Amino acid sequence: MRKILPILFHLLAATACLSSCTALAASPLDGAWQLESGSYLDNEGREQDYSSLKLRGIKLLADGHFSFTTAQDGRFWAGGSGSFTADAETYVETPRMASYPVVDGGSYRFSYTLEGDTWTLERFEDGKRVEREVWRRATSRP
What we know:
Elements: H1 4-20, E1 31-41, E2 47-49, E3 55-62, E4 65-72, E5 75-86, E6 90-98, E7 108-115, E8 118-125, E9 128-137
Antiparallel strand pairs: 1-2, 1-3, 1-9, 3-4, 4-5, 5-6, 6-7, 7-8, 8-9
């Protein structure tokens, strides 16, 4: 529980920032995102599909900062927060706090496409795709 509290605090701070922080340079990725689907390679090189793991997630991006929380079948699974950079094809997350060990020098580099409200990310290591996620922009309800 002690590991979760700092992450939840960061998520709350990021949520507040979405409505009150002064924008530095707005990114087309800024906003709230819901995880639609995805997969990753486990430690044994087997592909793990997010839907079969019953994973759901939300990611918040604002002013170069990100926060996310992922639940598995309704229970906390992973979370993290930190900074991000993005250009037209590359998205890089640098976690400052995470519920998992951070690898690759502290940053995760993804190629991505943004088509309407669908954001698709892929991460490769040694030419092999190790992670793929599809996010849908969350819309506010009237």
